Amino acid sequence: MPLLAELPISSYLSSVAEKKPVPGGGAVAAIVGAEACALQTKVAIFSSNSETAPLIESGLKTQRKFLELAEEDSKAFLALMSNGKKSENREKLLIGAARVPVQVLRLCVLQVSNLKSLLKLGNPNLVSDLGISALLLISSIKSSLLNIKINTKSIKVVPKDILQAELQAERALEELESLSLAIEDAVS
User: Relative to the CA of 177, which of 79, 91, 99, 116 has its CA 20 to 30 Å away?
Assistant: First the structure.
């Protein structure tokens, strides 16, 4: 299967809709995060001042990382599926499968500060793109939380780093919800 990042959008959507285990929700959550970064990068490019220039490079780099995580999620899920429910290392595989959405979630959390910066420094004509970016980050975080929960529900002791990521998500979601509402008010 070709890399998700190399597929035309229609082929990507068809691959998600196929009766195959991957790409699934974890890959989709990562790609939604990449879309949020793409919108932030667009705003930074259209704002083109010295203060937004670092956000362009950061946005492009993070977008690539999200796409890599989409691939990693598919690999982790396939490894889990191929080992079966009775596998001796099932718990280890479940933890591995949970750690990919943890990484997606953490990348989303890091985007909150970029979003705030762009709201202050960015082209005001593109504020709706920042609102959409915030909503996409909310979706990616919530989707990642679902994947973390499904992968850890049968684990006896959930690793501390995974539990901490869930707390980070709560704070980021509060901030993103607040930013989304402020942007909605600004465009109304």
Answer: 99
CB neighbours (10 Å) of residue 101?
A: 30
pLDDT tens-digit series, residues 83-120: 867 778 889 999 999 999 999 999 999 999 999 999 99
Torsion angles phi and psi, residue 109, rounded to 5: -60, -40
Instruction: Give the up-direction half-sphere exposure of residue 91: CA atoms within 13 A in the CB hemisphere.
Output: 7
What is the domain partition of the chain in residue ranges? 4-187
CA separation for the pair 116, 165 (Å, rounded): 21
- pTM of this structure: 0.93
Give pLDDT tens digits for 140-149: 999 999 999 9
Distance set, CA 129 to CA 77, 111, 171, 187 (Å): 32, 14, 22, 11
Burial 26-65 (b: 16+ CB within 10 A, else e): bbbbbbbbbbbbbbbbbbbbebeeeebeebbebbeebbeb
